[in-house]
Amino acid sequence: MALKAVLLDIDGTLLLSNDAHARAFLRAGAELGFTSTLSVIRRRIGKGGDKLIPEAFGVDAESPAGKELSELKKKIFKERYLPTLHPTRGARDLLSKLVEDRRKLIVATSAAEDEARQLLVQAGVDDLVTEMASADDAESSKPDPDILEAARDKIGESRNDVMMLGDTPYDVEAARRAGIRIVALRCGGWTDRDLWGALAVYNDPADVLSHYEVFT
Fold this sequence. Notes:
Blueprint: E1 5-8, H1 18-32, H2 38-42, H3 49-57, H4 64-81, H5 91-100, E2 104-108, H6 113-123, E3 131-133, H7 146-155, E4 162-166, H8 169-178, E5 181-185, E6 200-202, H9 205-210
Parallel strand pairs: 1-2, 1-4, 2-3, 4-5, 5-6
């Protein structure tokens, strides 16, 4: 079947930001007196804050303390880390090719929409991706499939006509649960074993572009 649309993760997929998110969470937690470690947090990047905060810090994400932690993390990330981040290799080239071939592009991210827009700008692809399904569109974040299903509903395509591009095991699990094929990337910092279940695993978007037949 001809592929009609690609669902896109951002962090680790289009922008080299996973480590920065982890460090921002660690710094925010330390400022508020919550104990965790970088490795514990890093292994959970790719999940939304609704899951990461209780798992990494033992705090209910919807409690006053959890909300304070989330807001401080966002502030630290935006001010300290976001301006320093770089796109993944080949991110713009791959998306440009997909647009040229008239494949619909839609972001499917656990981030809030305002944060996701900032990430797309930093990745240099905000003009190529206008559709988005974010944490604002789903009750539960990855690895639950809600965001992927919201993205597919927005573009009006069937499961067989879409594919996801992501970089974490949470992307892979969410895609599997949504019945959507996924191509996974190593540039987010995960191993092939972590990404088991993906249709294929490549180094980064440039590597995917050199194997572009995966989208045909």
